[in-house]
Design goal:
Distance between the termini: 143 Å
Structural class: mainly alpha
Number of helices: 9
Strand order of the largest sheet: 1-2
Helix content: 55-70%
Largest sheet: 2 strands, antiparallel
Radius of gyration: 40 Å
Order of helices and strands: HHEEHHHHHHH
Number of strands: 2
């Protein structure tokens, strides 16, 4: 080898591997093949069929995932019932007894006042949800009235009393015990 530095062209031609790569690349440019054809548009991905927590969410119109709280709560209750069945029984008794205790402690007037106040707050914040809640309670009331109508005798009237007429309501508000004086009889 000489002492003079090689030029760039001479250095490139001196490497046999580089010559082979150039020759193959030049041949590939003129050669038809699948790598030279335009790739077709990719198909959209198939919907996910994954199991697991995907069922506990749903997609909104904007693509975000929103949890389904009802299913999550049901899964938690089922897990709790499976791990500690006595705890599930205690929870069921508590759910039944607490409203009864509240009703007996606070009284029906205070409970009704609290329910009306909660509904008024809901109506101010979300009128559509309040209207849906009213419709649901109305349907429940009508369903209970139909069930009570099928019961024999006065049992149905005891479960779902008839609404108090306005004139009687006004008289009772003026003197709530006036109705008892007329029923007391002589003496």
């Amino acid at each position: 080898m000489s002492d003079r530095p090689e030029t760039t062209d001479e250095a490139q031609h001196a490497d046999p591997t580089l010559d082979i790569v150039r020759r193959v690349m030049a041949e590939a440019e003129h050669m038809p093949g699948p790598e030279r054809e335009p790739a077709p548009d990719p198909e959209p991905p198939a919907p996910s069929r994954r199991r697991g927590l995907d069922g506990l969410t749903r997609r909104r119109a904007d693509g975000r995932r929103v949890p389904r709280w009802g299913l999550i709560g049901l899964a938690m209750v089922a897990t709790g019932a499976w791990l500690a069945p006595w705890a599930a029984l205690a929870l069921a008794i508590l759910v039944v007894c607490l409203p009864v205790i509240a009703w007996l402690t606070l009284g029906p007037d205070r409970i009704a006042e609290m329910a009306v106040g909660a509904h008024d707050r809901l109506a101010r914040r979300n009128p559509a949800k309040a209207a849906g809640l009213r419709r649901r309670w109305r349907r429940l009331r009508d369903r209970l009235a139909r069930i009570a109508a099928r019961l024999p005798g006065g049992l149905g009237d005891a479960l779902v009393p008839e609404p108090i007429p306005n004139e009687l309501r006004q008289r009772l508000e003026a003197d709530p015990f006036g109705r008892l004086e007329g029923e007391r009889g002589p003496g």
